[in-house]
Structure formats: structure tokens, C-alpha cells
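so i finally got all the pieces together for this one. its two components total, 441 residues if u count the protein bits. some of the lines might not be protein, just check the labels. i wanna see the whole assembly predicted at once instead of chain by chain like last time, that was a mess tbh
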Amino acid sequence: MTGKHRQHDEERLARLYREQGDIEPGPGVDQRILTRARDKVRPGRLPRPAHWLGGAAVAASLLVAVSIVINLEPPQPEWPPGELERQAEPARDEAGDRTESSAFSAARSRGSQEAPAAEPAMDQIMQSFSRPPEEATADHRPAASVAEEVGRTAREQYESLGASRPPGQSLEEARDLLPPVGEVESGLLDDESAEANRVLWLIDRLITVGNVQRARVEIDRFTTRFPEREIPPELLAELERQESPAPAGTISP
Amino acid sequence: MTDSRSDDDLMLAYARGDVRAFDVLYERYRKPLYRYLFHAARNRAVADELFQDVWMRIIDARKRFRKGAGFKRYAFRIAHNRLVDHWRALDRRREEADGSRTEAQADPADSPEASVEQAQHRAELMQALGQLSRVQREAFLLQQEAGLSLAEIAERSGVGRETVKSRLRYATGRLRTLLRPAASTSEP
């Protein structure tokens, strides 16, 4: 057999093999293989995220929610109660320190009594502290300027008393007629009522010491300055009593 | 089912999740792989089991397939290794039973249903292949079904190229002799 014949026989054998060997897998084998192939690459078989990712996501969501709630809280009032107390304390202390170094402390050291109008004056100061700073500073004068004004007023009163004091009255006696410096201060810081009370007290003292002329002048000023206030009848009665008899030895201006 | 992509591209596409690529690939190699396993094992039940196992291994190893490996060689190498495992297990069982090393008998239930003539020719082919030694039949089937060269068959079988050439020469001569009447009738 030549090589050509052998090659021809091999080709014929291969063809015969293919023609007769047309066999297929058994029933169900194809379906099992194709199903397995699909299951292996099904999207649902993608690796699942780690189990702790769920908890982490919940925690992160809670954190974000809490942050949003905090940021959405209504704005705090401009001066909350606690803040008012905190603001008032140093201001009160500061005012106290300044008054200690002012003429008030000197007056108190002389044993002068507390003025009746001091309490309302302090209340007014505290109310001004309770207001916002810009509003409070507009009304509240510094303690130094208050002390200067008190001193000036006291000096004017002292000079007026000295000028109008009756003959023979010593300067010390006339000075005793001055109201305590603390009372003057409270009158300046207080409202008109306190000022009126202070003037009434001064008139009473003038009448007491017999300076009826000066007392009458002050009464006229009082009625002009405080038309709504009424002068106590007993004060007027005492003044009229001292004006009418004019006994000998009465001090006259 | 036509697809212009190469075998390697189809396998890589399937590894990326393209199921249709696997369908095409399966259709291309379904019959050659099964014929190889069927004629080598000479038993339909065994062939079905081996065939399914080979494709499962291909599916599971899809991520490890690299372009240029050649899917045809890749698939038949898996089939060959699976077949060798089957023969080894079969030999162990026979040695344990009676020490004989007879080849497995052809399954009488493997008669085709297409036609009587085709069934006769197929039975003759099965009988002729059964008369070959295992190594001769293996070399013949790898050449016919996998299209492997002498060198590739030698590498796969772990023998020299000349040995494979001798086995193939003996196998084809034997089959030619056994199938001569059928071969003559198939001539135009």
C-alpha cells in the first residue's frame, strides 16, 4: 500500500467515523449543564455585601438625623434667663465697686441713713441691666458721672443753704440740713416720685429749722415741678403755723 | 446559533457573565466531546457522567481561563484527565475483583434509533474501537475528536512522538480491516 493510498484510506476512515459516530448525550444532561452554567453567573449570585454594612448604614443614618434635628432647633432667645443673671452679676458688682469708691461710700461711712428711695433706684438699675446691652447702656450712666452729678448737686444745695442760712446759724448746722448724699443719689437715679419725695423731705427740714421763707420758695418750685403731687397738709399747716404768729426771736431770713 | 467570536473569546465572555457565550461554546463542542468520551469509555452511562463532569469543571474554572490557551485543547485536556481518572478507578476495582484487565464491554443499549443501517454501522464501529487497546483508542480519538497533533497527543499521553505515531498507525490499520465492508459501502 503506497502512502497515497494510506492517506486516502485514513480520510475515508475518519469520514466513516464521523458519520457513524453521531451520538449525543442522554436526555437531561444538556439541561443540567446549561442550568448550572446560568446559575453560576446569575446576577443574584454576586457577592453579598458584608453583614456589618447594614448596621453601619443604620448608625450613619441616625447620626445624620440627629445632626439635622439639632440644627433645626428654634433659635435661643437673645437673653435667656441664665444669661441675664450672668450678665447682671458682674454689672452689679461693678456698680457696687464704683459706688464704694465714690462719694456714696464717704456718706455712708459718716453714718448716714439709707434713703427711702434707694430701693427703687437699685431696682431701676437692675432692670436696666436686664435689658440688652445696647439698650441698657443708653439709659445707664456710668457710676463716675453719677457721683460727679451727686457731688455737684450736694455742693449747690450746700451753697444755697449757706447763702440762705439765718444769721447765727453755723455752717455745720446748715450742713446738717443737707440730705444724706445717698438720698441725693437715689433721687437722681430714681424717677420723679423719688425726687418729689426728696424735695418734700427738704421742705420739711427747712420748716423744722424755721427757714419758712426758703421752705415757701421750695414749695412753690415743688408745685411747679411736680403739679401732680400733693403737698402733705400737715406740712402746709406747720408752715402756716410758723408764718402766722411771728413771735419774737423767730429766725427770719 | 452562529457567533463569529473565537472559542477563547466566548469563554472569556462567559467568565464575565455572558451566558449566551456559553451556549454557543457548548453547542460547538457538545458532540465532539461526547463522542470522544463515549468511544473512549464505551459505555453511555459512563460517558454521560464523564461528559457532565467535564463541563462542570469547565464552568467552575471559567475565571482561571486565559486567552490564548485554546479552548479546544483546554476542554479535551480536561476530558482526557477525567477519562484517565475513570480508567484508573476502573482498573482498581477490577484488580480487586478478579485481577483481570479486560476492557469494558460495549453497552448493548447503545444501539442508535435513527436507522437500521446507521445502527449497524455504528455497532460495527463500536466493536472495532473496542478491539483496539486503550492507548491506541485514546490516540485515535484525540486525533479525530480533539484534532490534536502527534506532539500534542504525545504530551498529553506522556509518551514520545514516535510512540504516538506508531499507535495511530496500528489503530487506523486495525479499524480499516475491521470496517472494510462498511467503508466499501460508503464509497460513492
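The longest helix of chain A spans residues 143-164.
Chain A has 13 helices and no strands.
anyway lmk what u think
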